[in-house]
Design brief:
The complex is a heterotrimer of chains A (about 130), B (about 600) and C (about 160). Chain A is about 40% helix and about 15% strand. Chain A is α+β, with helices and mostly antiparallel strands. In chain A, β3 (about 85-90) and β4 (about 95) form a beta hairpin. The longest helix of chain A is centred in the first third of the chain and has 22 residues, at about 5-30. Chain B is an alpha/beta fold. Chain B has 5 domains: about 5-105, Glutaredoxin (3-Layer(aba) Sandwich), CATH 3.40.30.10; about 130-340, NADH-ubiquinone oxidoreductase 51kDa subunit (Rossmann fold, 3-Layer(aba) Sandwich); about 350-435, Ubiquitin-like (UB roll) (Roll), CATH 3.10.20; about 440-525, de novo design (two linked rop proteins) (Up-down Bundle); about 540-595, 2-Layer Sandwich (Alpha-Beta Plaits). In chain B, strands 12-11-15-13-14 form a 5-stranded mixed beta sheet, with helices on both faces. A 4-stranded mixed beta sheet of chain B has the order 2-1-3-4, with helices on one face. In chain B, α6 (about 140-150) packs across α13. The termini of chain B are far apart. Chain C is built from 8 helices and 4 strands; from the N terminus they run αααααβααβββα. Chain C is elongated. Chain C starts with a helix and ends with a helix. Chain C has a 4-stranded mixed beta sheet, with helices on one face. Chain C has 2 domains: about 1-70; about 80-160, Glutaredoxin (3-Layer(aba) Sandwich). Helices cover about 45% and strands about 10% of the residues of chain C. The chains are: A alpha+beta (about 130), B alpha/beta (about 600), C alpha+beta (about 160). The interface of B and C includes residues 55, 278, 314, 431 and 446 of B.
Chain lengths: ~130, ~600, ~160
Amino acid sequence: MAKIKSLEELKKIKEQAQQSVSLRVKGDNIENLVQVRVAMATCGIAAGARETMNEFIKVLNEEHMDNVVVTQTGCMGYCYAEPTIELTMPGKEPVVYGNVDKNKVHEIVEKAIKGGEMLDGIIPVTHNTVE
Amino acid sequence: MAEYKFHILVCGGTGCLSSNSHEIADGLKDAIKAAGMEEEVKVLQTGCFGFCEKGPIVKVLPDNTFYTQVKPEDVNEIVSEHIVKGRKVNRLLYVDPENEKHISDAKHMDFYKKQMRIALRNCGFIDPENIDEYIGRDGYQALAKCLTEMTPEQVIEEVKKSGLRGRGGAGFPTGLKWQFAHGYQADQKYVVCNADEGDPGAFMDRSILEGDPNSIIEAMAICGYAIGASQGRVYIRAEYPLAIQRLEIAIAQAREYGLLGDNILGTDFSFDIQLCFGAGAFVCGEETALIHSMEGQRGEPTIKPPFPAENGFWNKPTNVNNVETFANIPVIFLKGADWFSSIGTEKSKGTKVFALAGKINNVGLIEVPMGTTLREVIYDIGGGIKNGKKFKAVQTGGPSGGCLTEKDLDTPIDFDNLVAKGSMMGSGGMIVMDEDDCMPSVARFYMEFIEEESCGKCTPCRIGTKRLSELLKDITGGKGTMEHIAELKRVSQVIRDTALCGLGQTAPNPVLSTLAHFEDEYIAHVKDHTCPAGKCTALLKFKINPEACKGCTLCARKCPVGAISGEVRKPHTIDQAKCIKCGACMDNCKFGAITKN
Amino acid sequence: MACNCAKGADKEKYEQLDAFIASLPSTQGELIRVLHTAQGIFGYLPKEVQIYVAKKLDVPVSKVYGVVSFYSFFTMKPKGEYDISVCMGTACYVRGAENVLNEIKNQLGIDIGDTTADGKFSLRTLRCVGACGLAPVVMIGDKVYGRVTPDMVSGILAECK
């Protein structure tokens, strides 16, 4: 640990440290954020859900999109369309996308999250999430 | 740096640690390693979440899932279900007592809904043993702002403007206290943090020190800058080993970063902190007594003036504030005095932390805006009285405070309202009592405590509290008369008017306040020789209901003193003169024929 | 005087205490800190240790005794192998700590502050330990027993073997 000798140096450490707590800050405020839930049951993981989740986190970090939080969830039941994700814009009903590969991740981030558009590949929701 | 996708926070407060939360944290780490996810999941122990009743608490983020009463054997399920498969473990979720629904996000629990966390902002949120996490939450920004943008006078002005009042007891305006210490010239001044939480049933200061030690260090440095002190001392109870350990770690890390020491943040301000250990004396909460104890002497108070601001530790100007008071300081500078003073009531600004305990469903540490009513605290946050019993009283302010009853439930809680009701804020202990609690016995409990803790320096407190506790022993022991009650009042008055220090003057409060609200209960003890709550064994009468008694003779055989007599298959009777009220007869009666009252 | 008592098995302990006192930049105002350390080393503060500390710090023995007897944390009696503390904070009190305490007294046949004749158990009360959610609380060493009822006492004592 080097000594902090100025306000600027303190701010630098703060920025680094902020990353480590930002996940928790988001969790505290989850209702006001865009939520991406990746279905991570066995079949989802086999179909590449983990890569999908990692790609989301990577892209969102690169774009500094602090208003989005990525979490995982269990099997959503759309085995034919794995990996599936559920996207919830604040105050709106969740939308489920199927077959989300890396390219689709970029499209979802650009168009659905930033632009608020509905994209192809939406799966009609047949279940309710119990909260 | 590893890119963690999950954080699992495990409560590391004393309450949860007592129920093996350490083992839980270790178990989680092992299970995550076994699942090959240590790069993705970070497990850390935080300070107290406050919901001690449901501890140990485990919180999973970012989905903000709040698991309650977790046992070490639950960790594998949490990891394999929640972390790996993303399915919440329903059976560990909090169940809303009203509709029996599972609630996974703490924000939706009644316990948290009405709370507002300022002093506890980082408790249960950051790793208290890692200064970086505190810095990541704007830590030390307030100190930086004070040192680089403000003069000491401006710092004091800002604290005054915030309306912050001392959280340790009497509620003296903090900014004014700083101003006094600032006003005296001396070659050395001291900032002292009073962490000698001696009030039985209060644990808020300990929880702040365990959960967010850096906020106290930062606030003390700000105070040092404001009053012109380069030395700080934390006077802490030796009975708080975990708080001491975390504070020591935080001080060491702050020194390494140069946030304590010479020329902090490149300015010419220097400040350092040392710990002083208390050794268990309630009176050391009084600031002059505390200072004597810090000097290695008996912790006896002295007459004020001179106030510590003029003549304190080693006869130098000294500013003493309590832990919770300090915990509010950094936020005032980060969010502004105007923001702070917008919270609370006209004369009591901000929030107050309470340790909610006793006969209440949700025991725990809570923080609410000043002006919240007792009803909201006890029924909405506290979940009401345990086992559906009837609310009787709540004791606030510890042994120096008093009790509030049913009719005070809708009073907004602040410094002045509590005093007007004959109690006080004190440090924030809040003990809830139900219909089974006998108020003269509660007064006796507090008087025995004060009698034992009286430092003995002044006669009214030393002898007076002994007399009070003797009188109460007589009353609860069935030997009281109406003269006892008159004498209680008289002695109380004398102590209140003549004791040396604040603790002595408030010592009779438990008696005066229970007498004010429950004099009929005292009278029942001395006139009718009954204890309405059924607590005082000496006053109990065991009776056999002749209609229910089958004359089985079991009670007579079980009675250790031969007080029960009667013929076989005929109702028995108890000789009250012989009875020692052991209750053996009642425990053994198969027909429920024996009652006590 | 001091050298007379620093003998036998306790020699090492006194040396440890000497080393701590020597490590202090100044002994002014450090009496309580020294007594904390001494109690940590010896387990309690018998007369000899108090006299020794007084000599080392150059303060009257009466002052040392005054401080030791003032603070509840300091004890002049040796603790038992199992040091039992019953929390008598208000939260524990209203949830029945007194009954638990009486049961322990009965079973061990000792009063508060005493140690059993075989040196196995000592009994103390303490103020709030902060585990009010588990009230009433009994601590044996570092182990915390929560929501204790008088019925549980014999089982808890039997665990100490």
